[in-house]
Q: What sequence folds into this?
């Protein structure tokens, strides 16, 4: 990407990869992947543009009603907070939903 002159890269974080059950139980290997990705992009002066949700709802939340139940919105807020605390010092561009 650096060699062809890109200065930004948009990617989506997989919610189930970071929080497999949708809440609380953090998959540190999943979160570490995005940490390394952001660091590598910045190393080459490529700004990360992070999308929080690209249609990959954790199965446990889907089984409890998905977006039709308020619990999912609360879980999404927790997920967004986790990512902002983990990556917010390096990511300037955030998108909430891909193609809402």
A:
């Amino acid at each position: 990407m650096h060699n062809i002159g890109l200065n930004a890269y948009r990617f989506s974080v997989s919610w189930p990869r970071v929080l497999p059950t949708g809440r609380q139980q953090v998959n540190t290997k999943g979160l570490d992947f995005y940490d390394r990705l952001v660091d590598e992009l910045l190393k080459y002066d490529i700004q990360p543009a992070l999308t929080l949700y690209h249609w990959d709802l954790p199965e446990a939340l889907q089984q409890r009603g998905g977006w039709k139940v308020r619990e999912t919105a609360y879980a999404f807020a927790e997920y967004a907070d986790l990512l902002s605390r983990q990556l917010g010092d390096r990511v300037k561009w955030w998108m909430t939903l891909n193609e809402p």
